[in-house]
Recover the amino acids of this structure.
C-alpha cells in the first residue's frame, strides 16, 4: 500500500545551520502521527516542507502520491500553523468564509462546513466578533476550525492545543480520533506534551533535526524498557522536555 505521506532523506539548512538532517518518515492512511520534540527540534520546518511552504535542500516529499509542492494536493490538506494566520479586522465568521472560498465548495456545503468547524472549536456564539477581540486561545481554536474547513484528507496541525483549556483539548482529541476512525483521515500533529503523544498511533521523536526513534507508543516503551514516553525520549538521546 502506498503511504499517504513519504518523507525521503530530507535535509534542510538555514545559514549553514542544519535544521533537518536526513529525515525519513512513512505515514499511512488513517494514522494519527505525532512529531514529538522540544522547541527548535525541527518539527515546524518539517511540517512546512510537507505542506510545500518550504523546499528541502535534499530529499523529497510525496503527499497523496504527488511530489510536493503541488497546488492540486493543497486542496486536500488542512494546515494549522504554530502562529495564527488570521485577519484580525474580520469577524470569526468572515475568516471562516474567506478561507472556505479558497476551496471548491458550493455555498450549501460551505455553510455546513463553517457550522461544523465553529461547533467543534466552541466558537459558534463568538463568530460575529472581530478576531482582534479574541483571546489567544480563541485564535488557536479558530485556526483549527480553518484547517478543517474544506474537509481535507490530510490534516497537519502544528501544536494545535497550545493555549486551549483542558476540557476543549479533550473534545478536540476525541474529534481527531473520530476523523481517523470514521472518515479515514490522516493526521500529523506536532507537540511537546507527552499526554498528547500517547494518543498518537505512531510517533517520531525529533531532536536537533534528527529522528531519534519512531514507532507506536507501546512498542517504543517496550523497546526501551520504560513505562513512559518521556523516558523513551531521554534514552533515545533527547533531553528533558
Amino acid at each position: 500500500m502506498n503511504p499517504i505521506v513519504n518523507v525521503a532523506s530530507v535535509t534542510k539548512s538555514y545559514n549553514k545551520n542544519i535544521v533537518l538532517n536526513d529525515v525519513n518518515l512513512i505515514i499511512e492512511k488513517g494514522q494519527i502521527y505525532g512529531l514529538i520534540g522540544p522547541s527548535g527540534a525541527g518539527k515546524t520546518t518539517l511540517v512546512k516542507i510537507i505542506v510545500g511552504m518550504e523546499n528541502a535542500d535534499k530529499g523529497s516529499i510525496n503527499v497523496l502520491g504527488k511530489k510536493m509542492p503541488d497546488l492540486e494536493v493543497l486542496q486536500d490538506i488542512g494546515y494549522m500553523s504554530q502562529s495564527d494566520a488570521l485577519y484580525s479586522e474580520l469577524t470569526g465568521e468572515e475568516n471562516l468564509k474567506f478561507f472556505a472560498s479558497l476551496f471548491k465548495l458550493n455555498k450549501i456545503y460551505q455553510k455546513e462546513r463553517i457550522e461544523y468547524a465553529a461547533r467543534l472549536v466552541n466558537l459558534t456564539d463568538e463568530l460575529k466578533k472581530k478576531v482582534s477581540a479574541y483571546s489567544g486561545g480563541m485564535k488557536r481554536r479558530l485556526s483549527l476550525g480553518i484547517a478543517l474547513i474544506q474537509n481535507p484528507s490530510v490534516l497537519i496541525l502544528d501544536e494545535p492545543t497550545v493555549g486551549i483549556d483542558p476540557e476543549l483539548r479533550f473534545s478536540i482529541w476525541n474529534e481527531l480520533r473520530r476523523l481517523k476512525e470514521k472518515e479515514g483521515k490522516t493526521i500529523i500533529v506536532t507537540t511537546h506534551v507527552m499526554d498528547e503523544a500517547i494518543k498518537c498511533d505512531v510517533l517520531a521523536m525529533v531532536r536537533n533535526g534528527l529522528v531519534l526513534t519512531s514507532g507506536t507508543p507501546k512498542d517504543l516503551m517496550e523497546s526501551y524498557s520504560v513505562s513512559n514516553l518521556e523516558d523513551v525520549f531521554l534514552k533515545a538521546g533527547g533531553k528533558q522536555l
Summary: Strands lie at 5-14, 17-27, 32-36, 58-63, 66-67, 77-80, 154-158, 186-191, 202-207, 210-215. The two ends are 35 Å apart (CA to CA).
